[in-house]
Amino acid sequence: MVRFEKVKLTYDNSGAKALDGVDLKVDDGEFVFLVGPSGSGKTSLMKLITGEVRADAGRVIVNGFDMMKIRRHKLPKMRRTLGVVFQDYRLIENMNVYDNVAFAMRVVGASAKDIRRRVPYVLELVGLEGREKRLPHELSGGEQQRVAIARALVNSPRMLVADEPTGNLDPVRSLELMLLFEKINEMGTTVLVVTHEKELVNAFAKRVIKIEEGHVTSDGNDGYFSYE
Amino acid sequence: MIREGFRSIKTHGLMSFATVTIIMACLIIMGSVALLSLNINYLIKDLEKQNEVVAFVDDEIESEEEAKAIGSQILAVGNISSADFVSRGEAMKNYMSKYDKSLMEGIDETVFRHRFIIHLNDIEKLAQTKEALEGVPGIARVRAHQEYADTFVKIRNIVSGVALVLMAILVFVSMFIMSNTIKLATFSRREEIAIMKMVGASNGFIRLPFVVEGLVLGLLGGGLGFLAQWGLYDLVTKSLMESITGDILEVVPFLSIAPMILAVFLGIGVVIGVFGGVNAIKNYLKV
Ligand SMILES: Nc1ncnc2c1ncn2[C@@H]1O[C@H](COP(=O)(O)OP(=O)(O)OP(=O)(O)O)[C@@H](O)[C@H]1O
Ligand SMILES: [Mg+2]
Fold first, then answer.
1. Is the pLDDT of residue B108 over 80?
2. For B196-211, what is each residue's pLDDT tens digit?
3. Under a CB-based contact definition with an 8 Å cutoff, are residues A32 and A10 in contact?
4. What structural domains does chain A harbor?
5. How far is A108 from chain B (nearest CA, A)?
6. In testing the pocket of ligand 1, which one of A8, A33, A43, A192 has its CB within 8 Å of the most ligand atoms?
7. Pairwise CA distance, residues B162 & B258, whole Å
C-alpha cells in the first residue's frame, strides 16, 4: 500500500522541482502503471517509496511506514516489505544466478534451510530453472532482468516496484516480463511499474497513473494513455 | 557473515596485500622510533647508574661493624639499587691512589669517614631519596649531584616525548592511508552494498564483513610487522656491535620486550584495520 499526500520534492543540488504536490493511493493487491515523459518525476517518486530520498513536504506512507518520520535504523525493516527492480538489473557480476538470488536472503539473515527451499521456487517462477550456475554475463538481457525480479521476490515482499524494467529489452521480452508481473500480481503481490512504453501499457487493461512536470495529470483504469 | 569477510579478502587479494603492507610499514616505522627511544633511555639509565650518592657515617660511630650495620636501614629507605660499605681505611687508600702519596704523609685515616656508595633505581627521585637518607640515624651527611640527575632526566623526557609525538602522528597517518586504501577496495563493492541496502540488510550486517576484514588484515599486518621488526632490530644491533669495538655499547635485548611489542603491534594493527574498514564504508551506509 502506498499513499502520497501533497508531496513536494526539490533537489538541493540542481534546484529541480521533481515533484510538486503529488496525491495518489495504491491499494494492496493492485497492479499500476506509472507513466509520464522524461524528467516528469517518475524515478523521484520511486525513490520516495524506497526511502532513498526524503520529501520536503506532504505525507508518504509505504506499507504502513510513515516515510517522513521513519528513523534510519528502521529503513531495513521497511525495505524488507518491498521488492525493487531497476532498469539496469544491478546483478553482482561474479556471483552466479543462484547466488545472486540467495544473496538477498542471506543478507536479511534467512536460514540456510529456508534459502535452499525458497530460491529454486522463485527461479522456477520467473522461468530460470536450469540456469542456476550461469554468471550474469552468460545470460540474455531478459534473463538477467528475470534474475533481478527473482531477487526482488525472494523475500516475499508485499509490493514490487520496478523503474523502467523493460528499458533494455526488446518488445517480445518486454511483453514476457509484463506477463510475469501480472502472474506475480495474481499471486497477491502489489505491483507498481514505471514505463515509457505506450504499446506495452495499452496491451494490458490496468490502472494507469500519468505524471507530468511533477503533477498527477490523469489516473484511470482504461488501460490507455497518450501525451497531449 | 564472517565467511563473507574472508571471502572478500580472497577476492580482493591485491588490495588486501596493499593494506597489510601499509599496516606493516607504519608499524615498523613506529616500532623503530619506539625501539630507538627505548635504547637511548637504556643508555642514559646506564650512565645514570654511574652517578653515585655518597652517605657519610657519623664520626661518632667508630667501629666498622657498627657503621656497616646502618646498611640495612639505608636499603629500607627505598629506591636503592645498591649500597656498598666503604670503611675509612679503604676510603683513604682509594683517595691516596688517585693523588700523590707524598702529599698524604702524616695524614691519619680518621680524617676520612666510613661511608656508603649508593646507586639509585630511579634518579628522578634523587631529592627525596637524599632527604630520606639524611634522616637515617647514624648518617651525618649525604652528597649527591642533583644537577647531573636533572640533566639526565631532562634528556630522557625529551627523547620519550619526541618518540611519543612521532608515534601519534604515525598512527594518524596510517589510519588515513588505510581508510583510503579500503575506500578504493569498497569502490568496487558499491553496487553490492547498494543491493544489500535495497533488500533491507541492516547497517550492522553490511558493516560486519568490513570489520572482519579490517580485523584480519590488521592482525596479519601486526604479526608480520612484528617479525619484520624483530629481524630488522637484530640486524641493526648486530652490525652496530660489530662496528663498535669493545663492549661499551649495550642494547636492549629484543626478546625481553618482544611480548610487549607483539601486543602493541597487534593492538594498533587491529585499531587501524577496523577503523579503516568502518570509516571507508560510512558514506555508502547513509542512504
Ligand atoms: N539526483 C538528482 N539530483 C538533482 N536533480 C535530479 C536528480 N534526479 C533527478 N533530478 C531532476 O528531477 C527531475 C525529475 O527527474 P526524474 O528522474 O524523477 O524523472 P523521470 O520521470 O524518472 O525521467 P526519465 O523518464 O527520463 O527517467 C528532473 O528535472 C531531473 O533533472
Ligand atoms: Mg527515471
1. no
2. 999 999 988 888 888 8
3. no
4. 1-81+160-223 (3.40.50.300), 90-156 (no CATH)
5. 5
6. A43
7. 22
Structure-block grid coordinates of residue B9: 579478502
Confidence of residue A24 (pLDDT cuts 50, 70, 90): very high
Find out whether the beta carbon of A174 lies less than 6 Å from any atom of ligand 1.
Answer: no
Instruction: Indicate yes or no: CB of B200 within 8 angstroms of CB of A79.
Output: yes
Residue of the CA atom closest to atom 2 of ligand 1: A11
B52-144 has CATH 3.30.70.3040 classification: yes
Which of the ligands is closest to the CA of residue A35?
A: 1
CB A124 within 8 A of CB A160: no
Query: Domain ranges in chain B?
Result: 2-47+151-286, 52-144
Contact B191 A92 (CB under 8 A): yes
Burial class of residue A130 in the structure, from the number of CB atoms within 10 Å of its CB (0-12 exposed, 13-18 middle, 19+ buried): exposed
**CB neighbour list of residue B233: distance below 8 Å, 6 or more residues apart:** B35, B254
Are the beta carbons of B198 and A79 separated by less than 8 Å? yes
Residue A226 beta carbon below 6 angstroms from any ligand 1 atom? no
